[in-house]
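Our platform keeps sequence and structure together, in a single record for each protein. Nothing more is needed to write down the fold, since each code stands for a local backbone conformation. An entry from our holdings is shown next, in its original layout:
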Amino acid sequence: MSFKIGKNEIGEGKPVFIIAELSANHGGDIEIALNSLKAMKDAGADAVKLQTYTADTLTIDSNKDDFKIHHGTIWDGITLYKLYKEAYTPWEWQPKIKQAANDLGLECFSSPFDKSAVDFLEKMNVPAYKIASFEITDIPLIEYAASKGKPIIISTGIAEMSDIEEALKACHSVENNDIALLKCTSSYPAPMEEINLITIPDMKNRFNVEVGLSDHTLGFTISAAAVALGAVIIEKHFILDKSIGGPDASFSLTPDEFKLMVNSVRDTEKALGSVRYELSNKTKSSRAFSRSLYIIKDIKEGELFSEENIKSIRPGFGMHPRHLKEILGKRAKCNIEKGSRLIWDLVNE
């Protein structure tokens, strides 16, 4: 199931692929966008993701109620057209952003929102495509993007089971099997009780694809938890400074916060390790603090071993405690001083 995005191999046992989502967090200033790239790299991101749309490729300029947002979001009260007009990343910036990202060692790809965006991104030679949560029902778009032979990452924020199955079928129909699904909750910010991270291993088993998390929660603890459950991709919104403002600022991470998230993810990776029951050298040395059988009172030659003169105590250099019942009632071969390790050579068989 594993595949590569640029130089990064995506899959179980590989380093988690960490995506910094720029989205609208440039405030309409390309210098902020370019400065964000350096901060993303310094914070430990592997890639930057853009969004490739215009207000006109997503909707129409209408004040009718259908086109106003009123779904309990942070954007309620404004029209779709106004939101997308504010949030879009100018297309003429995007080749410059990709080049700057690549110069820093970051992968750069995007979410296309129509076929014209796919065509534009193909000219930029992006290494992958991301299908946004709200586009998972746009089967012609998914099929067209997948037909380009690049890995496809699909967010599932508004998806029902049938939507996921249909999206995967669209990719397979054009012989693209390099697919990752992202568990996602399309609330902004997403409340903890709606995250349902336990879905991650189920998605992996059910759909036989790589699985990650698109994290819209406040903070970063959920990303590390997702990795513990098998996520191989983490996507999180990034903002250079929250004073920039914009539609996504409230649930985006600043560079310092993003760095803490990356560190948490990397620590989780190390802690997961592999299935093993053998002790490391460091752990073996700690066995000195386990219990073993010791002489706790001076014993004369021929004296019986009893619970009065031997005991299971720390440290662990004496005989294993499992032998206690076996030793009780036997006699000492010689005089034994209090504090001596009990070993078989001291026991008269």
DSSP finds twelve helices and 14 strands in the chain. Residues 185 and 193 are 10 Å apart (CA to CA).
